[in-house]
Amino acid sequence: MRPSSGQHLESVLPRPPAAYSLTEAVIHGEDIARPLDRHIDVSSRSLVTVAEIARVTDPVLGGRRRSAGLTLRASDVEWSAGAGVVRKKSGAGR
């Protein structure tokens, strides 16, 4: 899901509303599953896509603003983005 030379990240991500539908389904699916101690199988490609969308957009949670100056790294798929301080939240991930 990385852009090729000369391409902007936004050009390789799904376009709204598909992008936002995928993001909502994955994030809220996890919101529901975790308290019930359930696991939802989500493809690595979908997880990376959602992470990229959340990182570069600012609709509700301010992902672009909140991730500025940080390096983000996933613990469950091969993905990282940004350049800066690495923050590790205790207890993050499964």
Describe the structure.
By secondary structure, this protein is mainly alpha-helical. It has one domain (9-86). It has helices at 18-33, 44-56, 63-67; strands at residues 70-73, 80-81, 85-86. α1 packs across α2. The longest helix has 16 residues, at 18-33. It is globular.
What is the helical fraction, as a range of percent? 25-40%
Distance between the termini: 23 Å
Q: Any idea how many domains? A: 1
Please indicate the percent range of residues in DSSP E strands (runs of 2 or more): 5-15%
Task: Briefly say what this structure is.
The chain contains 3 helices and 3 strands, in the order αααβββ. The protein is mainly α. The protein has one domain (9-86).
Record keyword descriptors for this entry.
single chain, 94 residues, mainly alpha, three-stranded mixed beta sheet, 3 helices, 3 strands, 36% helix
Q: Helices, strands, pairings?
A:
Layout: H1 18-33, H2 44-56, H3 63-67, E1 70-73, E2 80-81, E3 85-86
Parallel strand pairs: 1-3
Antiparallel strand pairs: 1-2
Helix pairs in contact: 1-2
